[in-house]
Design brief:
alpha/beta; 5-stranded mixed sheet; 15 strands
Length: 247
């Protein structure tokens, strides 16, 4: 009887050890064209608020998280196909997206900003009628443009292409997440003298970023949520926001 008990204990400990070691590394996919959230720096390294946030989560849960640069058009199909464990790419949590993937608790609140030429006097949504506005395809910025009455939407593979089109006069404005808009219109030396954030699109719903995981992958979801909770509780989230976004 004692041998049987010892054997059962050994099996339990072994299985517990296997379970705890089941996840030793996570792979995150980011479309690194969204400064200051996720982008490639001058040294060709993936960096930004989101990347630093992942590193903080990694330390909090004791699991390595490797970041990969993946184009936006393939980022969600790649997640569904299991090529990586999570998408960390300024992804807004929406009910439509929840149908095909699961999301962590939010890690950043965002609004949709309208970038216009410095010379524009438009400061409200009514002034956008008759204009052509650009945004990155498949983003909440583009979805917002599609809902605007009298506005012609134009999609781009990357937000930088939309900003460049505005800068060169091919479109009238750009809509994108406010930290990204601030980086292009206020911080980027190429555009700051000619572009501005005209106003924030009004909305009745708050918009939040979350890390996306494959539908039903509760193990990874729980790990990330545990890490996010620690990053928030320890004040690291506030420090990262100050570092990358400011006030």
């Amino acid at each position: 009887m004692l041998k049987k008990i010892l054997l059962l204990v050994a099996i339990f400990l072994l299985s517990a050890g296997v379970a705890s070691a089941a996840v030793s590394k996570l792979t995150a996919a980011s479309d690194c064209t969204w400064p200051p959230m996720e982008f490639i720096d001058a040294n060709k390294r993936i960096t930004g608020y989101t990347i630093d946030y992942l590193e903080a989560i990694s330390k909090a849960i004791g699991i390595k998280i490797e970041s990969r640069n993946v184009s936006w058009d393939g980022i969600f199909p790649g997640l569904l196909a299991g090529r990586y464990d999570l998408v960390a790419s300024s992804v807004t949590i929406t009910e439509e997206r929840r149908e095909t993937m699961d999301f962590t608790t939010p890690y950043f609140e965002v609004r949709q900003a309208v970038i216009l030429p410095q010379s524009s006097a438009t400061n409200a949504i009514e002034g956008l009628k008759g204009l052509t506005l650009g945004a990155q395809i498949g983003t909440t910025g583009f979805f917002a443009i599609e809902k605007l009455e009298g506005v012609t939407p134009r999609s781009y593979d990357e937000i930088s292409q939309a900003v460049e089109a505005l800068y060169s006069g091919r479109i009238n404005g750009v809509v994108c997440d406010d930290p990204v808009a601030a980086d292009f219109a206020l911080q980027n030396k190429t555009y700051a003298d000619k572009l501005k954030i005209a106003f924030i699109l009004p909305t009745t719903e708050n918009e939040y970023y979350g890390f996306a995981v494959k539908k039903g992958n509760q193990e990874v979801l729980d790990l990330l949520n545990r890490g996010i909770a620690k990053v928030k509780a320890e004040g690291t989230e506030t420090q990262l926001r100050q570092k990358w976004v400011g006030q």
